[in-house]
TrEMBL record:
Domain of life per record: Bacteria
GO BP: leucyl-tRNA aminoacylation
Protein name: leucine--tRNA ligase
Enzyme class: ligase
SUPFAM superfamilies, sorted: Nucleotidylyl transferase (SSF52374)
Known EC number: 6.1.1.4
Biological source species: Candidatus Nasuia deltocephalincola
């Protein structure tokens, strides 16, 4: 009997060539957690799909003089082989590609709904232009003035582009980031990118002129002027100025985001006559906005900020609207006609959606010739053009979770996703866009929920050496830098599970540097275990039940360590489990056990628990020792230890007669009663 369904989905891969260890690390986390849930009688499936649109496939097809579909089919076929050889529990029945018309037809329906609700507009703004890929890039795709994929310098250029209006749902997204079960680092990154800054308008009467005036300033001035009024030592130098009634000619306050604590090193405030602001110094201050105060005395200036009756707040955001259109051929086509005369756009009929993309083209040039069709405009009866631009690939990857489950009534029951595994580099791009689109689908009454992901686990980056002229650097593992390590090449010389141990040794939250010595040590470790099993089979141990006190201590120590195993797998602390795995085998080697019955019982419990991590090798050991039944964990033990761990507490009770221990048992007591 299964109790509940749990969805654990990895990030959608791009079929660019071969799977390297960075990808394998992501799928391995999901695979281990899936096996763990399945053994505790949860319905859990590992699902995978292919994000097959984008500029890399188009650039590769132009270089190799071939169609992008043929290029992608070869890559997908090879990557499938790699995943199947690595013994991952993937359900291949629900596999799909974003090229399929059944998939990107939903993008067209979504765009048509946005046009009806006035959430999509066109404008000719200055935007980021990549000269290498010859496309528009959003602000999230530009990292330190360089394109995120091409690593070329980005320039500003006026281009007609279509935009999604993000500002309608961004305030809700900003507030809900605190309630999410995500890592703190990801939440801070999203908050800083949105940057919901509140401004205030203060209306006050000038004491001398008796006129209404308006001043525009930030909320962070409160901390500044509270500090100003409290510090009496600084006022001693200004006693003459405060009483004499000098007028302030011009004070310019330059502020962007926040004030931090004060320091006495540098002056950040600027004014014509340095009257009193030169004594205030801050550690951090971002210069962006200029504020002016004219004709006020210092007393008026101080009283102004204590008067808080007429306040009107206003919100300003750092994030801008999402530019969808890309000047490329290989992508989901925009189902829009645009009229140059009346400067209006409207969506196509439902029948024409699928016909838009033509898969047998190689270059952008042919694409412009074929799809430059003319239609009469609805509004002004002049010629209107079919839109040549395609959608951003992040629109395809923002809602792919829903495609795994075809029946619509299951969406509200199954979602949000229980665990989503991916890299931290997608914190701003992919995760932020997916949150926005799910909010739109909820507002359009397709879904009952607004957040797609309940729990997020962000993995670290694997670093490797990059060879350059006259230098060697350690950088992120990627295909563009030619520093990838492919798991198939390692599995020829070593076992796959030895590769798993070398990855699992390091914590998944942090980055780690790849070295070949790690695999050699882990492979030797498995060989030493295999020797022990062969000794048991040759019957070099005592069959009689000689039970020493030393063996009892070792046996109890191993069982007490295995109790932590269940808690750590639920928290995805796999590096601590493998330390525990090494520790147990060191104790067995150091303190020699000659009793075959104790050894078999210890190995039985170790193999049963660590089957989740190393299924291929443990099945071999299981058959060698001739254990009966299939590998399964007792559900009652796990239910008692994990699921009721938060509400109940175990209390050990020892039975003593004449100061001799006869036995022990455990009582489960509610935490409220303790």
């Amino acid at each position: 009997m299964f109790f509940k369904t749990k969805n654990n989905i990895p990030m959608i891969p791009y079929p660019s060539g071969k799977i390297h260890i960075g990808h394998f690390r992501n799928y391995m986390i999901n695979d281990i957690y899936n096996r763990f849930l399945f053994l505790i009688n949860y319905k859990s499936k590992m699902l995978i799909s292919w994000d097959s649109f984008g500029t890399p496939a188009e650039n590769a097809s132009i270089k190799n003089n071939m169609f992008p579909i043929n290029y992608l089919k070869k890559n997908i076929f090879f990557m499938k082989k790699q995943l199947k050889s690595s013994h991952l529990s993937i359900l291949w029945k629900k596999e799909f590609k974003t090229i399929n018309t059944n998939y990107y037809l939903f993008n067209h329906l979504l765009i048509s709904k946005l046009i009806k609700n006035n959430l999509l507009y066109i404008s000719n703004k200055k935007i980021n232009w990549d000269d290498c890929d010859k496309t528009v890039l959003s602000n999230e795709q530009v990292i330190n003035g360089v394109g995120w994929r091409s690593s070329c310098a980005v320039n500003k250029k006026n281009v007609l582009t279509y935009y999604f209006k993000i500002k309608y749902s961004i305030n809700e997204m900003y507030k809900e980031t605190e309630n999410l079960d995500w890592p703190d680092r990801v939440r801070v990154m999203q908050k800083n990118w949105i940057l919901n800054r509140t401004f205030y308008y203060y209306f006050y009467f000038n004491f001398f002129r008796k006129k209404m005036k308006k001043v525009f300033f930030l909320k962070y001035f409160f901390s500044f002027f509270d500090f100003f009024s409290k510090k009496v030592k600084l006022f001693n130098k200004f006693n003459k100025l405060l009483n004499s009634g000098y007028f302030i000619l011009d004070i310019y306050l330059n502020i962007k985001n926040e004030f931090w604590f004060l320091k006495k090193k540098k002056n950040y405030f600027l004014n014509y006559k340095n009257i009193f602001l030169k004594y205030f110094y801050f550690k951090k201050l971002y210069i962006n906005i200029i504020y002016k105060f004219k004709g006020l005395t210092i007393l008026e200036f101080l009283i102004l900020f204590k008067f808080k009756k007429f306040i009107i707040s206003n919100i300003k955001l750092k994030i801008k609207d999402w530019g969808i259109s890309r000047q490329r051929y290989w992508g989901t086509p925009l189902p829009i006609y645009y009229c140059k005369k009346c400067k209006k756009f409207y969506n196509l009929n439902f029948k024409n959606y699928v016909v838009l993309i033509s898969r047998n083209l190689k270059n952008n040039i042919n694409y412009f010739k074929i799809l430059n069709n003319l239609i009469i405009c609805k509004f002004c009866n002049s010629k209107s053009f079919k839109e040549i631009n395609t959608c951003d690939t992040f629109l395809d990857s923002s809602w792919y979770f829903l495609k795994y489950f075809k029946k619509k009534y299951k969406y509200n029951l199954i979602f949000p996703i229980d665990l989503y595994v991916g890299g931290i580099e997608h914190a701003i791009l992919h995760l932020l866009y997916s949150r926005y689109i799910f909010k739109i689908l909820r507002n359009l009454k397709y879904l009952n929920f607004g957040e797609p992901i309940k729990k997020l686990f962000s993995q670290g980056i694997i670093l490797n050496k990059v060879l350059k002229l006259k230098e060697v650097r350690i950088e992120k593992m990627s295909k563009s830098k030619n520093n990838t390590v492919i798991p198939d090449e390692i599995s020829k010389n070593y076992n796959i599970d030895s590769l798993k141990i070398s990855i699992l040794r390091n914590p998944f939250n942090k980055n780690f540097i790849w070295r070949e010595n790690i695999i050699k040590n882990s492979n030797l470790f498995f060989k030493n275990i295999f020797k022990k099993f062969t000794l048991i089979l040759k019957e070099k141990f005592f069959k009689k039940f000689f039970f020493f006190y030393k063996h009892k201590i070792i046996f109890n120590f191993i069982i007490s360590n295995l109790k932590n195993f269940l808690y750590l797998t639920n928290k995805i602390c796999y590096d601590k489990i493998i330390i525990l795995f090494f520790r147990i085998f060191k104790i067995i080697n150091f303190k020699k056990i000659f009793n075959i019955f104790i050894l078999k019982d210890i190995y039985f419990k170790i193999l049963k628990n660590f089957f989740i991590f190393f299924p291929s090798t443990i099945i071999k050991f299981w058959k060698l020792l001739k254990f009966k039944n299939v590998l399964k964990i007792n559900f009652k033990e796990l239910y008692f230890k994990i699921l009721l761990k938060n509400s109940y507490k175990l209390k050990k009770i020892i039975i003593l007669i004449n100061n001799k221990i006869l036995g022990t048992f455990y009582l489960s007591i509610l935490k409220k009663n303790i």
